Amino acid sequence: MTLSAETMTKGAFAAHIGVSAGRISQYIAEGKIYGDALEGDGRSAKIRPAIARQQLQKTLEPSQRFGANGAAVLKPSAVQPNLQLAPSDAASAAPPRLTFTDDVADQLAAERLRQQQITTARLEREEALEVGRYMRTDEARRQTVRAVSEAFKVMEQGIPEMAKAIAAQFGVPMHDATHALLKVFRDVRAKKAASFRTSADEQPEHLEDEQP
Questions:
Q1: Could you read off the pLDDT of 37-81 as tens digits, one per residue?
Q2: Which of 76, 109, 157, 180: CA 20 to 30 A from 119?
Q3: What's the gap between Cα 42 and its chain centre?
Q4: Under a CB-based contact definition with an 8 Å cutoff, are residues 16 and 49 in contact?
Q5: What is the distance between the alpha carbons of residues 184 and 181, in angstroms, rounded to a whole number?
Q6: What is the distance between the alpha carbons of residues 163 and 46, in angstroms, rounded to a whole number?
Q7: Where are the domains of the chain?
């Protein structure tokens, strides 16, 4: 698929212009890709590459245009602070680019880049949550409690069979064997439940994701 195609997925368009899929979602959220460049809504929306590329030529800052994942390159400060007009790109018909060469401009560019990185990271987390790579903490805890409860229930349901075997082997009343097994089982269950709660309380709210 090339940029001459009528529509592309977000991932395909991202690969063609050299950015991440999360960055394309960011461009859409910020209104840098909009209107006729989109076909459909939400996650299923597709990109009309020719229109989207023209829009990005106009809406992105010069340092962001189709670079390595959109990373800006700050210019060293000049001896004499001034404001210069860089030559416009006639092929893309983009407006004249303003190049700041003083320290304040570099600081502003660094702050814009930091804010964009924060936004990109948030969008990538949301995308990972949608595809099931991440799970909300409260939902994970509910699922864990449900699984442990079911495991204990299965074990408790097996006690009568164990009591029957013990009664037959050692010649004791089945009632006494059942009572003794239930008492020990419930004591163990209470201790383990307390241990599980302590372990859960000691876990950090967020874990570092080691996946790329």
A1: 999 888 888 999 999 999 999 888 766 665 544 443 334 333 334
A2: 76
A3: 16
A4: yes
A5: 5
A6: 64
A7: 10-130, 137-202
pTM of this prediction exceeds 0.85: no
CA gap 173, 166 in Å, rounded: 9
Length of the chain: 212
pLDDT at 2 over 70: no
pLDDT band, residue 154 (cuts 50/70/90)? confident
Other beta carbons within 10 angstroms of residue 183's beta carbon come to 10
Burial 45-76 (b: 16+ CB within 10 A, else e): bbbbbeebbbbbbebbeebbbeeeebebeeee
User: Residue written as tokens 């805890």?
Assistant: 141
